[in-house]
Structures are given as structure tokens and as C-alpha cells.
Design brief:
This protein is α/β, with parallel strands linked by helices and 388 residues long. The protein has twelve helices and 16 strands.
Length: 388
């Protein structure tokens, strides 16, 4: 099954939905207008059930096949935007200052809505499909909230599949891998308390700026000198705050950042070394260093059988030559990981072409990807729930 004719015919309609969502972005769990839009469309399509408030502001639509009773699968899209000021200059650019869809969740939602419309029209499958629209992927853990809310049990979901766009991957191509495909994430804040004083008399101070500068460099040894080079780990300091004057050594500075890894054992080593390095520098300079370390999303781990199934579905749409079945893992995080902990399934990347990267103010989802994503969803649904 190549790209569905119906998906190609619907592209402009679905792109219109996507641009509406792009113009009206919302953050975290506060996706009230987005959820209302999704709910209205699912009811318009004739879904058998439309349930709101799953995981606080998530929406699930249920479509039952016309070929009999059977199992259920889940197809998931995310709805939330990012706190970024848009610079695309598009006619449909964000109308909300400081908020934009910089990760393509508008496209993910629109593509799944398009697939839901098609599947509600045809119902050429056994069992049922739960189309899942999730809030708060960008750091809020909305996927975890939906799972904790009993979504899998309530809708009888046996397997679950997700999709994310990938800038740099050509249009019409897909990429996937079994096992870890996206990283576990953690956030840290390190507070260094020294003794402030006059900048011209540093010998009478315990300089937290100097200590913090050494700590930034020392933390890089976690990847270069602690973790096995064949394992993946990223330790990145993204904030360094301290001081207000040219001639004053401050009392405190604060560092913050993120840790990414593909194995929980590596994540544990990174945290232990961060604490040990901080304690060592504190002892060496007579400062106090407090480390607040918060594990966040787990590894997004594709199940082997479902990865093959998803790869085959993508190949049926795009051709085998356009499916990368062993893409290198991405060190970004993804809270679809919680759904994959709850049920077997797989996350796949769909090509967005040569666009600005994710989380960039010039990023925009490529509407040319819509027929490819829609066709993939339909193939997954109709194959997973075939009469055989």
C-alpha cells in the first residue's frame, strides 16, 4: 500500500487543521483549546467514544471496526507547544507571544486526526483503535499521567504506537530501531555557596564563580573518563547564574543542566559521579555545594516484535529503500516512553525534510509530510487488526 489516495486528497484539509493549531499553541497541561478542537473533530468524524480529561487534559477517541470484535491498539500524538518566540514569519505563525509549536506537535495531532477521519469512514478492521492525544510531552510527563489514569486498561489497549517528525530525514522516509531509540533524561541544579567579598581582595573570599567554572569542566569527565566510550551519555550545563556587580565576588552561584543516557545503569553512574565531583570540589575550596538531581523521562525503548511490524508498515507505504531500520538513537527525551513501559509498541520517525531543527524558533512542520504520516497510521491500524 503506497500513500493512500484519500490521504493525498485530504492533505490541504489536514494542513488547515495543523495551521490552526500552529496559530493557537498552548503549553504543558493547559491545552484546553487544543483538546476542545480535537474533541470536536473526533465527534464530527463519528468516533464511537470520545473521552476527555484522561491524564488531566488528554483526549482519547475510540473507533470500532466493522469486521467484528477483537483486540485494541493505541495510536498516539502529542498536543503541547514550547515557550519559544517564533521567527518563521508564516501567515499562520503563533498568535500567542512567547509560545510556538517548535517541535511539530501540531503536525502530529493533525496527522492522527486525518487518520482518524479516514478510519472512521472505512472501519476496515477487526477490533478497535484508540487515537490518543496527549498533553504535556515537553517536560510535564503527560504520557505518564494518561497511563496512571488507567488509559490502557479502560480502552483495552494491547499495543501502542507513536510517531515523531525528524528534520533532516528526507520527506517520504521513515527511521526506527529496536531497543533504545530516545534517551532517558534528568535535570540537575547545583548551588555553590562560598564567601563573598571585594573583587580586589579574592584571597579573603571563597569564590563560587571560580569553583563553578572548574565544576563545569569537571562534569565533562563523566562522559570522557568515567563512562565506557561505547555507552552513550550527555552531561550538559545550560545555566550559570551568579553575581550582580563588576567588583563583587558573590556569595552563591547556581548551575543547572541535563543528563541524557540510554541505560539506567549509566544514568546511575552519572548521578553518583556528579555528587562525588561536587563534594570533592567543595572540600578542596572550603565551599558548600548542594546537588539537586531529578530523574525525568525513562528511555524510550522499542519492543522488538512491534519494531519489525512498524518497519514493515512503513515499508508498505514508502518502499523498503525509504525505511531506515537501524537509525542511531537520539539523545532527546520523549515521554511516549511511559506508554511503552505499559504496553508493547514502537516509536518511529517520519521525515520532515531540510527544515530548521526541533526546538528552534524558525522550525515549522512540513505539511508535505502529512500524507506519509496518515498513510502509515492507516497501515498500522488495518494490518494490526486484520481479519487474519
Amino acid at each position: 500500500m503506497p500513500i493512500l489516495n484519500r490521504a493525498a486528497e485530504m492533505q490541504e484539509e489536514v494542513a488547515g487543521w495543523r495551521r490552526h493549531l500552529h496559530r493557537n499553541p498552548e503549553l504543558n497541561f493547559n491545552v484546553f483549546k487544543t483538546a476542545d478542537f480535537v474533541t470536536e473533530k473526533l465527534k464530527e468524524f463519528g468516533c464511537d467514544e470520545v473521552v476527555t480529561g484522561i491524564g488531566r487534559t488528554g483526549v482519547v477517541g475510540v473507533i470500532r471496526g466493522r469486521l467484528g470484535e477483537g483486540s485494541a491498539i493505541g495510536l498516539r500524538a502529542d498536543m503541547d507547544a514550547l515557550p519559544i518566540t517564533e521567527t518563521t514569519g508564516r501567515p499562520y505563525a503563533s498568535a500567542t507571544p512567547g509560545v510556538m509549536h517548535a517541535c511539530g506537535h501540531d503536525g502530529h495531532t493533525a496527522m492522527l486526526l486525518g487518520a482518524a477521519k479516514y478510519l472512521a469512514e472505512t472501519r476496515n478492521f477487526v477490533g478497535s483503535i484508540a487515537v490518543i492525544f496527549q498533553p504535556a510531552e515537553e517536560g510535564g510527563g503527560g504520557g505518564n499521567e494518561m497511563v496512571k489514569d488507567g488509559m490502557m486498561e479502560r480502552f483495552g489497549i494491547d499495543r501502542v504506537f507513536g510517531m515523531h517528525n525528524m528534520p533532516g530525514l528526507p520527506l517520504g522516509q521513515f527511521a526506527i530501531r529496536p531497543g533504545p531509540i530516545m534517551a532517558a533524561t534528568a535535570e540537575f541544579t547545583i548551588t555553590i555557596t562560598g564567601r563573598g567579598g571585594h573583587a580586589a581582595m579574592p584571597h579573603r573570599t571563597i569564590d563560587p564563580v571560580m569553583i563553578g567554572s572548574q565544576l563545569v569542566g569537571a562534569l565533562q569527565t563523566i562522559a570522557s573518563r568515567t563512562v565506557d566510550p561505547v555507552d552513550s551519555v550527555v552531561v550538559t550545563v545550560t545555566k550559570f547564574h551568579g553575581g550582580d556587580a563588576y567588583n563583587v565576588i558573590p556569595e552563591k552561584v547556581e548551575l543547572a543542566g541535563t543528563v541524557r543516557s540510554l541505560r539506567k545503569e549509566v544514568a546511575a553512574v552519572a548521578e553518583e559521579r556528579m555528587r562525588t565531583i561536587s563534594a570533592g570540589l567543595a572540600a578542596a575550596y572550603g565551599a558548600t555545594i548542594h546537588v539537586a538531581y531529578q530523574p525525568n523521562y525513562p528511555v524510550t525503548f522499542n519492543h522488538a516484535e512491534e519494531t519489525v511490524f512498524a518497519s514493515d508498515a512503513a515499508a508498505a507505504v514508502a518502499g523498503e529503500q525509504n525505511v531506515h531500520r537501524s537509525v542511531p538513537p537520539v539523545m532527546g527525551g520523549e515521554d511516549f516512553s511511559y506508554m511503552l513501559q505499559a504496553r508493547p509498541g514502537a516509536l518511529i520517525f517520519v521525515g520532515n525534510g531540510e527544515t530548521a531543527n526541533l526546538h528552534h524558533p524558525a522550525y515549522d512542520f512540513n505539511d508535505e509530510a502529512i500524507p506519509h504520516g496518515m498513510s502509515y497510521w492507516v497501515r498500522i491500524a488495518e494490518t494490526a487488526l486484520a481479519t487474519a
